[in-house]
Design brief:
Length: 454
């Protein structure tokens, strides 16, 4: 036990708490003050919200977030996870308070009088809070961040159930204490997800540090297209109101995709080496991923899921779980940054590449090495190389493997590899830029076509 305590970064945790506490009260208080100086502060509420009951006792779960907030810092196992967790909390506070200043809102219902034990907590809350600082709800954002933090320490199923119920109680309490309108909840949850996405607890580069301004004009063109799509969805959400406000979710999703193309790169999708995304990224990019999956199905309808290029090596689209099972559960190599492999595809590998963008030569060389590794691991079994459509990213990776590890001879190199791939899957589309990327591996002389998707 003594060794367990000695291994924890207690002093650093105390330092973080000493920074986070004053930062919260300073920024939150300034945002409240700013709202009081405005001549008119609007409100955004649905008519049905007047039917939400006022339950004074739910102030107790509402306040528990303060205890769990402070305690969370002292549970960190090392400086890395502590600093990432602290960065999440700082980001949530600063982003939320910036929104409160840019777009101030107020709670439009008057709270009834409260008596008994809850009255003390309501009085304490009103000591620093006012009916402003609404969307996004910082309370919800912090609850999401803390839920993600605590679940890494909890293994028993019953304890996890308690954690889920606690998180739900906190989120519901913002309504039943009449502190927030409904719109504040999804926007607060979105903020929490963004903070988790920005600062992964794993020992990977955080997204703020991963930002590299794109030099490829095509990436900027795609970033602009996705940004325009985000603005269109947001405009429709604000214009339509009501249920149309849910279009803010695809708007946020497309905006993040635009940022990935502008600077974060494939890393922004947080696809791991086994072809699975982090849970926050799955939710943030869900509308975009749904559109990408439907687009892939439309482009490949009527085509076989995969075709055999050489014995034991298949090239095709990303399989569904049923297609993967029907194919005999082959080893998968995915080149998708945006779509996951089937969840039960054990042993799958992924080299995530941005859609519609030609990667650097070293990434194709890496993809070829991963394919070779999967071939050896399969021990004569099939390997399925895939991307969203199986037309470009996976085709180029297959050509790279054939030219460096496969059937192509040194004399004709990737020309033979490209011909073998095209015979198996005539629909492949590779622009001249793809062959420039393949050139260090022995570029083929080939024809090109217009790319439908990737």
């Amino acid at each position: 036990m003594r060794a367990w305590f000695a291994a924890r970064p207690w002093k650093r945790a105390a330092g973080w708490l000493a920074v986070l506490g004053p930062l919260f009260y300073l920024t939150y208080g300034l945002a409240n003050w700013w709202a009081t100086t405005r001549a008119q502060v609007p409100s955004m509420a649905f008519a049905w919200e007047r039917q939400v009951p006022f339950w004074p006792w739910t102030i107790f779960p509402y306040w528990t977030i303060n205890v769990f907030y402070a305690l969370s810092l002292f549970l960190a196992r090392d400086r890395h996870t502590l600093d990432r967790h602290g960065a999440r909390l700082v980001s949530a506070t600063l982003i939320a308070c910036s929104c409160f200043v840019i777009w101030p809102l107020h709670f439009s219902f008057g709270q009834p009088a409260v008596e008994g034990a809850p009255a003390f907590l309501f009085a304490a809350l009103r000591g620093f809070d006012q009916p402003y600082n609404q969307a996004p709800s910082l309370h919800i954002a912090l609850a999401v961040i803390l839920w993600d933090w605590y679940r890494q320490f909890i293994r028993p199923r019953w304890a996890r159930l308690v954690l889920h119920l606690w998180a739900f109680a906190i989120c519901a309490s913002v309504l039943t204490t009449w502190q927030h309108h409904f719109i504040d909840i999804p926007t607060g949850a979105l903020l929490g997800l963004v903070c988790i996405w920005l600062w992964p607890l794993q020992r990977t580069v955080s997204l703020p540090r991963a930002w590299r301004l794109a030099r490829n004009p095509r990436r900027w063109k795609l970033a602009a297209c996705y940004a325009l799509g985000a603005l269109a969805c947001l405009a429709l959400a604000l214009w339509g109101g009501g249920w149309a406000l849910w279009l803010a979710w695809p708007a946020a999703s497309l905006a993040l995709v635009a940022l990935n193309y502008a600077g974060f790169g494939a890393r922004g999708f947080q696809m791991d080496g086994q072809g699975r995304m982090g849970w926050a990224a799955r939710w943030l990019f869900a509308p975009y991923r749904l559109g990408a999956a439907l687009n892939a199905r439309l482009w490949t309808r009527g085509l076989p899921p995969a075709a055999e290029v050489v014995p034991g090596l298949w090239l095709g689209r990303l399989p569904t779980p049923a297609e993967w099972q029907a194919a005999g559960r082959p080893r998968l190599v995915s080149l998708c940054a945006e779509l996951q492999v089937p969840s039960d595809a054990a042993g799958a590998r992924c080299v995530p590449l941005l859609d519609l963008v030609v990667p650097p030569s070293q990434r194709l060389r890496r993809a070829a090495a991963v394919i070779e590794g999967q071939r050896r691991a399969a021990r004569g079994g099939p390997v399925w190389v895939c991307c969203a459509l199986g037309f470009s990213r996976s085709a180029a990776a297959t050509i790279a493997w054939l030219g460096t590890h496969g059937v192509a001879s040194a004399a004709d190199g990737l020309a033979t590899a490209e011909a073998a791939v095209r015979r198996a899957r005539p629909q492949i589309v590779l622009r001249p830029a793809w062959f420039a990327a393949l050139a260090p591996l022995g570029a083929p002389s080939v024809t090109t076509g217009a790319a439908p998707h990737e």
